[in-house]
Amino acid sequence: MPATAESTAPATAEPTIPPAIPPASADVPLLAIVSLSLAAAASGMALRLTDALLPRLASEFSISLGQASLVITVFAVAYGLSQALFGPLGDRYGKYRVIAWACAASALTSLACALAPGWHALLLARLLAGATAAAVIPLSMAWIGDVVPYERRQPVLARFLIGQIGGFSFGVWAGGFTAEHLPWRTPFFALALLFLLMAWVLRRARRGLPATALQTAARPGGAAPRRPFAAMAAEFGAVLSQPWARVVLVVVFFEGAAVYGPFAFIASHLHQRFGLPLSTVGGLVMAYAGGGLVFAIAARQLVARLGEERLVRWGALLMAGALLALALLPAWAWAVPACAVMGLGFYMMHNTLQTHATQMAPERRGAAVAAFAACLFLGQAAGVGVAGLLVGQIGTAWVLAAGAAALPPVAAFFIHRLRRRAVLPAQPAAAG
Fold first, then answer.
1. What b/e string do you get for 383-396 counting C-beta neighbours within 10 Å, with b at 16 or more?
2. CA distances to 115, 158, 362 from 221, in Å
3. Which pTM does this prediction carry?
4. pLDDT of residue 424
5. Could you give the CA distance from residue 109 to residue 359 in angstroms, rounded to a whole number?
6. Which helix (H) or strand (E) holds 32?
7. Is residue 215 pLDDT above 70, yes or no?
């Protein structure tokens, strides 16, 4: 990446340009945040539901484990690419409203997964499911960025992510339980009902929001409306014009590849190495959520004590150590603390990146966070795709070890750029 000048605003300071939507955290009902967290849980379940199902799907459709992992890859690709649509839509029509629409659409695409008559139909349905679920978590983060001041935002984001963490872990467990005891279609029916419920809850919660929390982003400089695709390109172009935004986006892409490429095969690795039932394996991987919850509960203290650099450095090292332990562990019981440590490490690092994402282009926060999510999930798709190609050749243990080796350099690059950003001369903010 070229060594261009970057803004020197400290990572914990507000930018000089006021955000398009004024903070209104004091007026935001707790139900609004809780509703978004529950919607994030449904979105997380949709993503991770197929992890422990991979061996069952491979058997069901007479395909390899690597081919079965395409149900994760196509979801992640669609999730990432759809951000080009949902970020600007959230800024234009209101983020909370678009999230509710996305939950309703996700109910339909989850039902399509449940009713898929064959393998290719299932892949198509998962592609559509990734596209519809794409709005929920990124727009929720962007909305929180709109209404919560920066100095209070990281702990609020951490608590919001309790839903996502729970959805991730419960999705893995539900997939494993289904693989052992139920028809593979069952959890997709349940997911459709959950998304439908969340669409209704979000519509109800939206009625209680103050007017300041429902404002849409004003066009910078009072610009005239543009054609949809031109407006979309302009929004993302403005985000990418920010040097610091480019750093954050590159880092989160490689974080997604290094973490979630191997993560998709943890359940299969434990199943194959120790002969554990997939339902048991899904329960073990749920310890990942335990580590994430530790961070969510202690976020305020950890942020104050460690600071951003050490959160990122130690988060990456904890994840690398956990992946190595999972690759080499002599007994399956060690998977529980290893998964917990991995969850803690991931949210230490990723929550720091998320907080930067909410502030890298405040006047276009929907597009900025959408770009962040796009890079995360395209990185995940790349990681799972490469791991799927290699797993049949080198085995699951080496796939986990490769992820462990990749994480420390990613963290080191981000820390280097963070330090460089802090000492460069201040640059004028890009014009809207």
1. bbbebbebbeeebb
2. 48, 33, 14
3. 0.70
4. 56
5. 32
6. helix 30-48
7. no
Assess contact for 6 and 429: CB atoms under 8 A.
no
Q: Counting runs of H as helices and runs of E as strands, what totals does the chain give?
A: 18, 0
DSSP symbol at 424: S
| CA–CA gap between residue 122 and residue 290 (Å, rounded) | 31
Q: Please report, for the chain, the start and end positions of each structural domain, with discontinuous segments joined by +.
A: 27-213+229-423
Q: What is the CATH number of domain 27-213+229-423?
A: 1.20.1250.20
The pLDDT assigned to 219 comes to 47
DSSP 143-179: HHHHHS-HHHHHHHHHHHHHHHHHHHHHHHHHHHHHH
* Alpha carbons 208 and 304: distance in angstroms, whole number: 33
Cβ neighbours of residue 431 under 8 Å, at least 6 residues apart? 220, 221
User: Which residues, in sequence order, are CB contacts of 420 under 8 Å at separation 6+?
Assistant: 6
- Torsion angles phi and psi, residue 209, rounded to 5: -80, 145
Q: Rounded to an integer, what distance in angstroms lies between the CA atom of residue 57 and that of residue 193?
A: 22
- Distance CA(27)–CA(212), nearest Å, equals 9
**Token code pair at residue 173:** 């467990």
**Residue 17, pLDDT above cutoff 90:** no
DSSP 193-219: HHHHHHHHHHHHHHHTS-GGGTPPPPP
- 271, 282 Cβ separation under 8 angstroms: no
Element (H, E) at 185: none
Q: Are 315 and 345 in contact (CB under 8 A)?
A: yes
